[in-house]
Write a structure and sequence with these properties.
Distance between the termini: 32 Å
Order of helices and strands: EEEHEHHEHHEEEEEEHEEH
Oligomer: single chain
Number of helices: 7
Low-confidence stretches: none
CATH architecture: 4-Layer Sandwich
Number of strands: 13
Strand content: 25-35%
CATH superfamily: Ribonuclease Z/Hydroxyacylglutathione hydrolase-like
CATH class: Alpha Beta
Shape: globular
Number of domains: 1
Length: 212
């Protein structure tokens, strides 16, 4: 398929920073640059892509703390996402980084907040935005129906779901979002998640213990 992806694990949390690009044009996007920017830039160089956008699925430090710096390094490209409900997380990244020993973490204000029903253009493809709170209030999932592919952040994992034991976490809301918004996408939908291996909606529908 014309849409290509490569995963660059970053931060001590081994977060899946994802490089997306169109094979024909080499125009691409970086999804969730949480840190280790030299490693991300090495991936950009190796794939020879021309990054014109940064996408954020949610505001946690391992997904967003490198976005402001990467924007500067890449000439001021746009940052899109997540939902405005994660603003408090993005506003606290620098302080949280100091407390966690993650130097270089910077607060970030996206150029565009995303809401349910929005469309995002990245890597020559169109993605529909689903607001899927629970892991964080402003988590979004980006869905490309044409290629049966989604970027789900920390909403859903292979065999698991995003943590909800934070003060603002909501287990019931997360399960509701997965069952009403992700499962109906169809069993053949494959997805890249924020940590660990890729999976499919069908695989998780049948085997994920949290969805039984």
């Amino acid at each position: 398929m014309p849409l290509k992806a490569a995963i660059v694990p970053v931060t001590p949390f081994q977060q899946n920073c994802t490089l997306l690009w169109d094979e024909a044009t080499k125009v691409g996007a970086v999804v969730d640059p949480g840190g280790d920017l030299d490693r991300i830039e090495a991936g950009i160089k190796k794939t020879e892509i021309k990054v014109d956008k940064i996408l954020l699925t949610h505001g946690h430090i391992d997904h967003a703390a490198g976005a402001a710096e990467l924007k500067d390094r890449l000439g001021g490209i746009a940052i899109e996402g997540p939902h405005l409900a994660d603003k408090f997380l993005l506003d606290g990244l620098a302080a949280q980084g100091l407390g966690m020993g993650l130097p270089g973490s910077r607060n970030v204000t996206p150029d565009r907040w995303l809401v349910e029903g929005d469309q995002v253009t990245a890597a020559g493809a169109s993605f529909a935005v689903l607001h899927c709170p629970g892991h964080s209030p402003g988590s979004v999932v980006l869905v490309n129906a044409a290629q049966r592919f989604a970027l789900v952040g920390d909403v859903l994992f292979r065999g698991s779901i995003g943590r909800t034991d934070f003060p603002y976490g909501d287990h019931a809301a997360l399960i509701e979002a997965i069952k009403t918004k992700l499962i109906p996408l169809g069993d053949d939908f494959v997805f890249i998640c924020g940590h660990g291996p890729m999976s499919s909606i069908g695989e998780e529908r049948q085997t994920n213990p949290f969805l039984a």
